[in-house]
Amino acid sequence: MIIIKTDSYEDMSKKAASIIAEQIISKPNSVIGLATGSTPIGTYEELVKLNKASEIDFSDITTFNLDEYRGLPRDNDQSYYYFMNDNLFDHVNIDKSRTHVPNGMIEDADLECGNYEAAIKAAGGVDLQLVGIGHNGHIGFNEPSDEFDKVTHCVDLTESTIEANKRFFASIDDVPRQAYTMGIGTIMAAKKVVVVANGTGKAEIVKAAFQGPITPKVPASALQLHQNVIVVCDAEAAALLED
Ligand code: F6R
After folding, report:
1. What is the pTM for the complete model shown?
2. CA of residue 230 to ligand 1 center, whole Å
3. Looking at ligand 1, which atom is closest to the CA of residue 202?
4. For this structure, is 163 an active site residue?
5. Residue-wise pLDDT tens digits, 88-123
């Protein structure tokens, strides 16, 4: 695991974007796994700039997002489908038919999750997966648990995640209670994983996940077992890490 400490959110975003750009340049038909949430927004802004400057070309890129709320229509501005269009896909030369976000409106969870997992495999697997980390150590919506979830599945969100996400909704009652998410196994199958984390609020979980014991109680800790992980933090999120 490589841990890169940057000075600021802006530097974290530039560094993460440059790693993704390198992937796209070295393999123009890469399969890229993407994340939503507030952390990667700056990374997407940098990727848009690089695309507009013709430094990276998305025309042959395929994407798979980590997760989506169950039961939230795609045109709801809090859906992850909406987020991805708004923050990245609408601003780069990507073929939208190659972009994939689990469809939270398909009620049959086993069907949708099974199809999603199969689509990732059919695309040849994920070359580079971008992930953020939740305050409780979740990646995707893989919440602390007694075991690491393997494949794309439906989850009940924990109170702490509902609490953390309520800022995006009119009221806490509007926050969906379930989501479809890649499993830890799906994420671990990516050839490379790039984690982004910023802010003081992430310092404790960054330390626990990447320098603490490997346990499904801290789902991101599984990444310590991955052969090719780069964690890109700002100074605040990296504050408790030992050299
Ligand atoms: C988003 C996702 C989540 C977030 C995590 C951190 O697709 O799967 O695991 O990465 O909740 O969210 P932020 O970046 O808002 O702190």
Report:
1. 0.97
2. 17
3. 16
4. no
5. 999 999 999 999 999 999 999 999 999 999 999 999
